[in-house]
Write a structure and sequence with these properties.
Distance between the termini: 59 Å
Pathway: Cofactor biosynthesis; ubiquinone biosynthesis
Structural class: mainly alpha
Organism: Usitatibacter rugosus
Number of helices: 3
Keywords: Coiled coil, Cytoplasm, Ubiquinone, Ubiquinone biosynthesis
Protein name: Ubiquinone biosynthesis accessory factor UbiK
Oligomer: single chain
Family: Belongs to the UbiK family.
C-alpha cells in the first residue's frame, strides 16, 4: 500500500480522536475507512469467484484451440512432404 495514504489515514484518525467523543469518532472512522476502501478499487468475493470461473473456462478453450492448431499443423506438415 502507499505509505503516504496510510499516513494520511492515520493523521485523520488521530485528529478525529482528539476533537470528538468516542461515538462520533467511531462513526467518522467508519466513514473514513469506507471511503478509503472505495478508493482501493476492491472487488467482492462473489465477483472474484465469477471472474475465476470465467478465466478457467477461457483457459480450457485456449488449451482446446492450441491442441486443434497443433493437429492442423501436423496434418499440413504431412501433406507437404
Amino acid at each position: 500500500m502507499n505509505e503516504s495514504w496510510m499516513n494520511e489515514v492515520s493523521a485523520r484518525l488521530a485528529s478525529l480522536a482528539a476533537a470528538n467523543p468516542a461515538r462520533d469518532f467511531e462513526k467518522n472512522a467508519r466513514g473514513l475507512l469506507s471511503s478509503a476502501f472505495a478508493r482501493l478499487d476492491l472487488v467482492t468475493r462473489e465477483e472474484f469467484d465469477v471472474q475465476s470461473q470465467v478465466l478457467a473456462r477461457a483457459r480450457e478453450k485456449l488449451a482446446a484451440l492450441e491442441a486443434r492448431v497443433a493437429e492442423l499443423e501436423a496434418t499440413a506438415a504431412g501433406r507437404v512432404k
